[in-house]
Amino acid sequence: MLKMGIKPDNFTYPSVLKACGDEFDLGFGRELHRSIDASGLEWNLFVQNALVAMYAKCGEVELAYDVFEKMPEKDVVSWNSIISGYASKGMWPQAFDLLGKMRNSNTPINLVTWNTIAGGYFQAGNYKDALGLIPQIRKHGIHLDSVAMVIGLGACSRIGIVKLGKEIHGYALRNGCDGNESVKNALITMYSRCKDLRHAYSLFRSTEIKSLVTWNSMIAGYSHSDRYEEASFFFREMISTGIQPNYVTIVSILPLCARVANLHHGKEIHCYIMTHGGFKDYLLLWNSLVDMYSKSGKISEAQKLFNSMNEKDKVTYTSLIDGYGMQGEGQIALKLFEEMNNCGIKPDHITMVAVLSACSHSGLVSEGQILFEKMSSLYGINPRMEHFDCMVDLFGRAGLLKRAADVITMMPFRPSAALWATLIGACRKHGNTDIGEWAAKKLLEMKPEN
What we know:
The chain is built from 26 helices and no strands. It is mainly α and 450 residues long. The protein has a domain at 1-109. α11 packs antiparallel against α12 (197-206), α19 (314-326) runs parallel beside α21 (349-362) and α21 (349-362) packs parallel to α23 (385-397).
């Protein structure tokens, strides 16, 4: 067109800029921007909107914002383009700030903007804020679409608000959206995560064509409720229908195998991961396998898997430390803890429970005491109830009952019935009736059901 001497106008530029954005061709997009500036054409809202959208799609949000800021006139498309640009880069504070400015400018906010911001709150873990936008959308007379419903249902499932989830379900039924696959999958997930498995199962069975996402929603729901048998049944049923599991499926059911120490099914999944490609880069899967073998007492298998892993994090080390601790191999657990620190991997409160418990099971009193003292000073971890539990167990097993009792009286938490029971058990083992009677009196004052 240019070679023929035909000059582009305000109808030409938006189309070509859109193509640049769709193809992520930033270089040609910049050329067009220079051409627009040099063209002498009058300022045009559609051309400027296309420039903002092109830069935003190409990930150059600062350039997009620069164009946006200089626009003497803005419409809802201008605001949506820049907000979506920041959202796509995960720059949610800037996106939220722009929504506030958009409201102040009295520009009508459409569903695209609401959904973008609600999705941002959801991704940031602000589920209450995401849900709080739904009444505002309705207040503006805007009907929820499937995207808004999926975000709302997802937020309900994360914080367990089944009542609001049911209201969204009712809205979907009234507006004929309940047949939408994404909405139905979100409903199944919401009901199952809120432990309303009857409704989840009913929706699942009423779905004629079940996609992998549908199966994953159901498996994840039962796994979330620690319903191992049902989750395993759905997993096998899914495979029998010819649908192959993906990372989401495996990551839903494998940690459950670890929690219930189901070695047989865990080994099957391990074999599946090894014989099917695409899973080697997912550290969470390998961590779950190490955890499963450790909890099942197959510490050599856990160690072998640990050695084969190119990448390890604190979860990997914690799982193996915990496994050796349960086997009474406290010295190996301590060496692993030292190795973890030497690798620059910082322990968390769960790691400290694992290593203190390992010291307790192996009678490593001084080592456990030193680690406990280092928790806040060296690792920046404030001791929690479970760490004091470990120390009472550590001293109790070693027969240092006065020190165990001191831990209970000096800790900044109200002792639980289980903690008093631990001390009583240690007193019974070592024949200390004085401390045992004191602990028993405290336990009876709590009036535990058992």
